[in-house]
Amino acid sequence: MTVNNPIAEAEALNDRLAGLDLAGRLSLVSGLGGRVVFTTSLGIEDQVITAEIGTHRLPIDIATLQTGRLFAETLSLIEETESQYDIHIHRFEPEKADIDAYAAQYGLNGFYESVEARHACCGVRKLKPLARALEGAAIWITGLRRGQSANRAETPFAEYDAERHLLKVNPLADWDLEAIKAFVSANGVPVNPLHARGYPSIGCEPCTRAIKPGEPERAGRWWWEQDETRECGLHVAEEAAAIAAQ
């Protein structure tokens, strides 16, 4: 894919994607040229995208960040999903040297002690593996939705990621949770059993709890922090720039 004005191209793509259904959006993106990578956390929305990629045999690489602290249910779901759709999900793990350095500075579970330590852990376990997963990619597909949190309420269908120098596509941006659940039910999509136990958003086991009635979808992520817009950094430009600088 030749990009002369990436911002304008992203805006034009955003407009084209708005009028398509999910299969159409993924098909369009997969045909633009260049390597296309979908990163999945195996959450319910990501499973919808994986189902469409696998069902329609789209030329999209699927990758997951196997952080070393995932729930056992999430790890089992990786293999179940591969089997159901006859696909391969590429695993990207943190480097042992990075984990050892983090533990030496903060302690293995130091992320509970400060926001700085938590961001450093996410950097080691998620952002650096993501950078490897996206090497050589022209397009990055995510499962971001506007309804996931106030911080994501303006999520476009397509945008230019200046830090990673690629197009970022969010094909489920306008889907709500009820539409996601309806698709899963109608198409027999395998999902993480933790969703039924009150975990709408699932990350690393030490950093995720079930939410309480009335709480936002992502309230169970890093619940001990007070910042309502808290993120791991995967979708925060400043965090991506810091990893690139390293």
Query: Termini separation (Å)?
Result: 27 Å
Which spans of ≥5 residues are poorly predicted at pLDDT below 50?
Answer: 235-246
Number of helices: 8
| Proportion of beta-strand residues | 5-15%
In which order are the strands of the major sheet placed?
3-2-1-4-6-5
Q: Structural class from helices and strands?
A: alpha/beta
- Biggest sheet overview: 6 strands, mixed
Helix content: 25-40%
How would you spell out the order of helices and strands? HHEHEHEHHEEEHH
Radius of gyration: 17 Å
Number of E-type strands: 6
Q: Any idea what the shape is?
A: globular
In round numbers, the mean pLDDT is: 91
Subcellular location: Cytoplasm
Catalytic activity: [thioredoxin]-disulfide + sulfite + AMP + 2 H(+) = adenosine 5'-phosphosulfate + [thioredoxin]-dithiol
Function: Catalyzes the formation of sulfite from adenosine 5'-phosphosulfate (APS) using thioredoxin as an electron donor.
Protein name: Adenosine 5'-phosphosulfate reductase
